[in-house]
Amino acid sequence: MFDLAISGNNILTRDGLQRAVVLVSHGRIVDVVPALPDNISPDSITDIGNRLLMPGVIDPHVHINEPGRTEWEGFETATHAAIAGGITTLVDMPLNASPVTTTVKAFEQKLVAAGKQLHNNCGFWGGVVPGNEKEIPGLIDKGVLGFKAFLTHSGIDDFPNVTAADLEKVMPLIAESNLPLLVHCELSDDAASPVTDPHSYQQYLASRPTHWEDAAIALMIQLCEKYRCRVHIVHLSAASSIAPLRQAKEKGLPITVETAQHYLYFNAETIADGQTQFKCAPPVRDKANNEQLWEALQQGIIDFVATDHSPAMPALKQLESGNFSKAWGGIASLQLALPVLWTAARKRNIPVTAMAQWLGAAPARLAGLQKGMIAKGYSADFVIWDPEATFKVTESILHHKHKVTPYINETLYGVVEQTYLGGRLVCDRGRLTAPHTGNIILR
C-alpha cells in the first residue's frame, strides 16, 4: 500500500517536467508512474493539477547561530522560514553559534539545542580552526557531514582563520573519510584599497578585491591536488577564478563550487552608499562579473546556489549609520532561496528544470544525501509552487527572526504553496501544518 500519491501535470522528475504520479510509502518515493494504479485508496491521492511539484530545496550554507546567539536567529525561526520557502533540508555552519562547532563537546551541545525545534531536516558541518586537528576524527565519528574553514577573518573571534599549514594537518584526515572541506576563499593582503568613506559601497567593494578570492582558490586547488581531499568553494563571487576552477575540474580534481543568490540577483552598480543591508563577504560585485557567474553556473563550473543565510540583529547591520566598516556582513534570505533564483533565471530564459539541479540534486551530492530528486528510493521531500505567480517581499511574510534583508519590496516570481517532508504536508502557504517534524541528519 502507498501512504500518498501525488498526481499532476508538472512533476519535475529526473527526466524533466511531465505528467506523472509520485507514489510514497514510509517517507520515501517508491515509484514514479504515468498514471494512478488501480489498488490505491482515494484518500491517499492528492491531485495538484498544473502546479509544479519539485524536490524539496536543499540549502547547505546556513548560519542558524544556536546555541549562544539565538538573539540573532535560532533553529525555531530559521527552520520555519526555510520550510515556508520550500527548503526541506539545510546544513548549519559551525560558526556564529557559541560555542563554535570545532570540538565534539560543542557539537553535542548543538545537537541538544536543535533537539525538537526543527521544522525541516538539518545536518551540520564541523569547523576547522588552528589547533583543532585532534578533534577532527571525533567530529567525523559523531556524524558531521563535512568541515568548514576560513582563509580570512570569519567575523567571529572564536572561529579564527586557518593557514595552509593548518590545512595540511587536517586534509589527509578529511580525505580518508571522503567528506568535503568547505572553504571561505579570501586571502587578505595589504594591496586592497583603503576605506576613507565607510558609507561608500564602492569603497567597501574595493576593500575586498577579486584577487583575494583568486589567491585563496589557487591555494585550495593546489592542496586539493596534493591530498585528493574533496574541496568545496563556498559563495564564489569573483568571476576571475572561473578559469582556474574549470581547469581543475577538467583535470578531475574533486572540487565543487557554489555561488549565492545575491551575487546572481544584485549588482554593485545599483547598491547605494549607506545600504548596509547589502553588506556581505565576499561583496556583491559589478554586473559584468555577475553575468560571468551566470555563464559558469549554466556551464556546470559552478555546481549550485546556496543562500549563505547570515542574519543579525538590526543594530548590528548599522542601518541608521550606513557604516559598511562597522556593519555585520551577512544577508538574510533563507525563505527566499527559490523565488530569488527563479526570478533571476527566468529573465535569462533558463528552464525551470534547472532549479531542481541547482537547489536540490547538486547540494545533496555535496552533503552525501539521497535527496534532491523525484525518483525511486529518494526521500519524499517536496515543494509545490507556482512559477508564474508573483509576490512582493514584505516584512510581514518573512519568518526569519529579523526582517532585515535587501530583498524587501522586491517583486519575485515563484510562489511556494506547500511543502512536504517525508511524504507529509508540513507547511501550507507559510502556515505550519505539522510543526517540529524535522529530523537531525547525521552521516
UniProtKB/TrEMBL annotation:
A Pfam family: Amidohydro_1
Pathway: Nitrogen metabolism; (S)-allantoin degradation; allantoate from (S)-allantoin: step 1/1
One GO process term, biological-process aspect: purine nucleobase catabolic process
Name assigned to this protein: allantoinase
GO cellular component: cytoplasm
Binding partners and assembly: Homotetramer.
Role, per record: Catalyzes the reversible cyclization of carbamoyl aspartate to dihydroorotate.
The species this protein was found in: Chitinophaga rupis
Similarity remark: Belongs to the metallo-dependent hydrolases superfamily. Allantoinase family.
Keyword Zinc assigned: yes
E.C. number: 3.5.2.5
Co-factor(s): Zn(2+)
Entry keyword set: Hydrolase, Metal-binding, Zinc
GO molecular function per UniProt: allantoinase activity; cobalt ion binding; zinc ion binding
Record domain Amidohydrolase-related: where: 53-426
Annotated PANTHER family: ALLANTOINASE
